[in-house]
Specification:
single chain; 242 residues; alpha+beta; Phosphatase 2c, domain 1; 5-stranded antiparallel β-sheet; 7 helices
Length: 242
């Protein structure tokens, strides 16, 4: 199993409010958490730091090899709920941090099994010999409009309200994440990223740059490409491959 991750401030922002925590729990088990903070001043960085660190710590400490899929799901959901409570309480204590929050996408990969949880618009993609597809669904206002048939796909991409998130960690007392379980038979890679990457990189670019390539070089090349295209946001990605 292989793991690579990196985060970059981009070419415009004054601060990197993305946060990644990733590592190996066993030789064949990896965990990656990618968060994209939101909020004024340094609040977004605080939210993403708390969420990524707390989710990673709870899952890493709680995971056991013999765990069944439902138990793993419970572990991931409990970790996100705990992070949500901590970020929310922190925002209530300090008026300057009121309303801060963060997106989150996390993946636990054990052998050929992948368990993914997400809140917000940071994404997870699965790549194999057949190609690439998005696993997660953006929790955004424009995606909701698109699902209801009120706007087209092209309109969604360029909509003036495309940055409005409908779910985030820490904004409300409770949060409802989405959960996905995948099982692959051959070679695969799970790719996690923030919107600062996928707004510049098509699925084809991600696939051609990462799959069956050196992972460190692939992640670095994607970040360089985003900055070359403008780098208007922080850029973060993590990839786990078997």
């Amino acid at each position: 199993m292989y793991l690579s991750y990196n985060s970059n401030i981009g070419s415009v922002r004054a601060e990197n409010q993305d946060k990644i925590c990733a590592g190996f729990l066993y030789d064949d088990v990896s965990l990656a958490v990618v968060c994209d903070g939101m909020g004024g001043a340094a609040s977004g960085a605080v939210a993403s730091e708390i969420a990524a660190t707390e989710i990673y710590r709870r899952v890493a400490e709680g995971y056991r090899r013999e765990m069944k899929p439902q138990t793993i799901r419970n572990l991931l959901e409990t970790a996100v709920a705990a992070a949500n409570s901590i970020v929310y309480e922190k925002s209530c204590e300090d008026i300057e941090k009121n309303g801060m929050g963060t997106t989150c996408v996390a993946a636990l990969v054990a052998g050929k099994h992948a368990y993914i949880i997400n809140v917000g618009d940071s994404r997870a993609y699965i790549m194999n010999d057949k190609g690439i597809r998005a696993v997660t669904e953006d929790h955004t206002y424009v995606n909701m409009l698109y699902k209801h048939g009120e706007i087209t796909y092209d309109e969604m991409l360029n909509h003036k309200m495309r940055n409005i998130i409908t779910r985030a960690v820490g904004v409300d007392p409770q949060v409802e994440p989405d959960f996905f379980e995948l099982e692959e038979t051959g070679n695969f890679a799970l790719f996690l990223c923030t919107d600062g990457l996928y707004l510049y990189c098509t699925e084809k670019i991600i696939y051609d740059t990462v799959f069956n390539k050196n992972l460190d070089d692939g992640v670095s090349d994607l970040i360089d490409y985003c900055n070359y295209c403008g780098g208007k946001d922080n850029i973060s990605a993590a990839v786990i491959a078997n």
